[in-house]
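Can't attach files on this board, so I'm pasting raw text. These are the components:
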Amino acid sequence: MSEARYAVGIDLGTTHCVMAAVDLAASDRDDVAEGIEAIPQLTAPGSVEDRTMLPSFLYLPHPDELKPADRVLPWGEPPPFVVGELARALGGRTPIRLVASAKSWLCHPGVDRRAAILPVEAPEEVARVSPLQATVRYLAHLRAAWDHQHPDAPLTDQEVVLTVPASFDPAARELTAEAAATAGLTHLVLLEEPQAALYHWILASRGEWRKQVRVGDIILVIDLGGGTADFSLIAVTERDGSLDLVRVAVGDHILLGGDNMDLALAHAVRAKLAAQGTNLDSWQVQALTHGCRAAKETLLGDAKVEAVPVVVPSRGSKLIGGTLRTELTRAEVTQNLVEGFFPVVEAAARPTSRARAALTKIGLPYAQDAAMPRHLAAFLARQVNATRDLAGFRDRLPDDTTFLHPTAVLFNGGVFKAQPLLARTLEVLNGWLDAEGAPPARLLEGADLDLAVARGAAYYGYVRRGRGVRIRGGTAKSFYVGVESAMPAVPGMEPPIEALCIAPFGMEEGTQAELPPQEVGLVVGEPVRFRFFSSSVRRTDHVGAVLEQWGAGEVEELEEIEATLPAEDRQPGEVVPVRLRAAVTEVGTLRLEAVPRTGAESWKVEFDVRGEG
Amino acid sequence: MSDLHPSFLARLILALRAFGRILGDAAFAAEVSRLDRGERVGPVAPAAVEPPRPSLRETAPDSALQLLALLQREGRFVDFLEENVSAYSDAEIGGAARVVHEGCQKVLREYLSIEPARTEAEGARLTLAAGFDAAAVRLTGNVVGQPPFTGTLTHRGWRVTEIRLPRLAEGHDVRVLAPAEVEL
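---
Top answer:
Structure tokens for the assembled complex are below.
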């Protein structure tokens, strides 16, 4: 392959991006030369600083708002937009020009991710950008930052590992890969974030990890970032006499993270102020959110503190007269944060779809139940059989087990810097395990909560070259297309749909599934859409298997997929029978192709089709 | 060699020695020849080092204004100092002081590395050997006699070990500590 000198890990987060690198030439086995890369960025107009994190914010300034010198960067011509710390600061005062959470939009199946839709609340004259473009701009900034600091080793020649949530669907993965290609990252591999966190744990143990786990362990990774909650299960097995790691399951996409928690606290304090007759404007609410975040960290970090003052400074230059003072009490943090987001629930608890006004924001499908343990309970129950077919795990769980029993937990994400939230999560999980007579799960130490994903990703780029243990597992889902059942039509009844398996569970990167025996018809010259499904629990379906019915929660419907057969030497309107073949690319994206009965050609089936529809 | 007026006998001995060496040592002969022409020979004696006269210089205002702008941005420092505090109660001033303290502390921690000039605890007895850095340690009170000096540390002092101020765009007007804000 390339003459890459570095393996670069990029954590493209909902709220922050982080970049790390491993110097391949200077590393040997467990002795890895790695580190976090500084990201120069604007922190005030005309002022550039190096930071370890690039806030994932894009600000689209008015032409008269900032002079070109105010947008200066250490490299190239100043772009007409701002990325990073300054974007976040300007957006606090002018939210109509701020693009935030582009990553959540990128995996939002309800919108066209290539259409210029952000910021959602921007007025007509603001030239909006698509979620894809925003992602390209963050990556382009990271690339420019790298190239500026490594003029001899441009990023396009390096091996880049870009992380995505384990729960990203094929369309979101493909869009992420497309954004990276547009930004000029040519040697790209995608890696699931919880896996990256575990790789970091392996890296940080400097070879000692083999002593901390044993065959039969099931590691639960709980990754709670700024915007999303992501769960994964990784089993410890044995292969050729040495320990091996297999990722056996990933959770659903849950838009619930640290930002929701800070917002919920700020709203509680705002309500308190409103009850005293003080109403805050949106700028003050933002200052309050900031104050609450700091106060929360103090309260959660020191059990002896009962209340922390929170002040909202005035906007005008009269600081003393206009400053509002209130306080955040331990009771408020306990009630809103600990009990609101981490309540003690039974293992049988499931997320409810109770509306929570404080968390909803126009457009994004935020989790309706803020209680993280209920999402976790649902995940572990759904995956109760995840290790059943793994050698060495067959007899581990008794028959009456209602959920999969993890034996170790790795926490990741800034939320868990608050020790009480980590302790509460572990306490709830161990309560469930105890109720089923299982030993408590161990806490895997040594996490670097904010930077672990990027560092783990860079390390993965290193171990991919055969210099350390790799987590196996392939795709965490099986995929199906909807075909109309062949039963006779009944007037007034839609023909029932059947799901035809085209990609089995656990496909590895760079492999191709066989062709299913069933054919579907494509109309020449016209886009034809198919319903598309996935399952995170049906592990044994082979290509060509047809599901006539399925249990609730067993199969999930994704966005429709679309194939267009060009007319070329065929008659438009003619129906051509094709078979659908799945492959997982080297990058780690799913690829579907329509293969006609004759001829060597095949046509790509698109995932992200809403734009053309 | 420091004898500037040698006696006749000494001069005679020197003349005889020089005669022999001029004949046998070409390099020596060349030196004497240059001396004879009135040129200076040998290594030039260094001029006596005069202690530099203390001079004054203007400091560039850029980083001072930049730091002030940072203190204002994060800690509303200028707002606070420009306000007439006599009109407010201590509780009101205290509320605002939290904003100032939190923000300005963040600036100090982020852009400067500051450590005490002396690591001893305040109140401790300490001895200063001869040649101590008078800029980093100020002697007060009964300042008499010769070092070593022994005294009590009343203030540990502060020393900046690292400065990490942001890079500024060429032509950036540092005199604008905080832009006026106009909400449309």
